[in-house]
Amino acid sequence: MHTALTVLLVIVCIGLITVVLLQEGKSNGLSGAISGGAETLFGKQKTRGVDLILLRTTIVLSVLFFLIMLALTYFNM
After folding, report:
1. Is the pTM of this model over 0.90?
2. What is the DSSP string of 20-42?
């Protein structure tokens, strides 16, 4: 059980790293934070298409990561 969870954790970690690196940056440094930061803060810009798929995939993979880590901790006792 421990080995299967460890292998699954490695796969989820590689997927999470890949999905995060595929996402496009929301702002370009300090100038983006000053000019367009309020629009993203209050939800003026909605994500669509591939960005939405990457965002949802990131959320799912991060939840899986934490659940697998909790399971590994629980079964390791």
Report:
1. no
2. HHHSPPSS-HHHHHHHSHHHHHT
What is the spatial distance between Cα 10 and Cα 3, in angstroms, rounded to a whole number? 11
CA distances to 18, 24, 41, 55 from 21, rounded to whole Å, are 5, 8, 22, 11
Q: Which two tokens stand for residue 19?
A: 């999905």
Nearest CA to 65 out of 5, 1, 23, 25 is that of 5
Extract the residue ranges of the chain whose pLDDT is less than 70. Answer: 26-47, 77
Distance separating alpha carbons of residues 42 and 53, to the nearest angstrom: 21
